[in-house]
Design goal:
Radius of gyration: 16 Å
Strand content: 15-25%
Number of strands: 8
Largest sheet: 8 strands, mixed
Protein name: Dihydrofolate reductase family protein
Pfam families: RibD_C
Order of helices and strands: EHEHEEHEHEEE
InterPro entries: DHFR-like_dom_sf (IPR024072), RibDG_C (IPR002734), Riboflavin_Biosynth_HTPR (IPR050765)
Distance between the termini: 14 Å
């Protein structure tokens, strides 16, 4: 069984919306405004590219990343990696040609089936709505969270507000940095 890893930049109050400056959100770009950049806090991002063998995205994140990431040196390891996009509306014609093999999945059942295949870890970037659905369905195995010392208030959240049974997590790696960021890696306890 493959490991499904959710990776996110998240505010202390759980917001994941528009960390990189995406338009339409009041606090857009919160990961680099008024936060001192410390390269060591982001080491996990390079490690993720080396360890992951596939990427899973929701439609909105795919449409945001696919025009930009294929040509970015910072994301070179993701270029040829197989990608899976969970969407009920995307068609093959909506996929970009310069970002490696991309497969459209139509349901969480198809994600569960993908996890049953041979291969290494699958990384989920962005994709707030997909992350909430995957978590509620019990499909996420690990969280890589870079927690920013900010309270953003309104915004898309990483975790849903569904009334569900407790999901226990085990902290397997953590570090605090001089700029207030915290790295927290949690395994989901089954």
């Amino acid at each position: 069984m493959r490991t499904l890893i959710s990776t996110a930049f998240v505010s202390l109050d759980g917001v994941v919306e528009a960390p990189g400056g995406e338009p339409g959100y009041r606090n857009s770009g919160w990961t680099f405004k008024d936060i001192e950049f410390l390269p060591e806090a982001f080491d996990i991002k390079g490690r993720e590219q080396k360890e992951a063998t596939a990427m899973l995205l929701g439609r909105t994140s795919y449409q945001a990343f696919s025009p930009v990431w294929p040509d970015m040196e910072d994301f070179a390891d993701y270029k040829e990696m197989p990608k899976y996009v969970v969407s009920t509306t995307l068609t093959e014609d909506d996929l970009v040609a310069n970002w490696g093999e991309t497969t459209i999945l139509r349901s969480l059942d198809e994600v569960a089936a993908l996890k049953e295949t041979e291969g290494g870890p699958i990384i989920v970037h962005g994709s707030a709505a997909l992350n909430r659905s995957l978590s509620d369905a019990g499909l996420i195995d690990r969280y890589h969270l870079l927690v920013f010392p900010l309270l953003l208030g309104a915004g898309k959240r990483l975790f849903s507000t569904s009334d569900k049974d407790t999901q226990k997590l085990k902290l397997v790696e953590h570090e605090a940095y001089a700029n207030g960021l915290q790295k927290n890696v949690f395994d989901v306890v089954r």
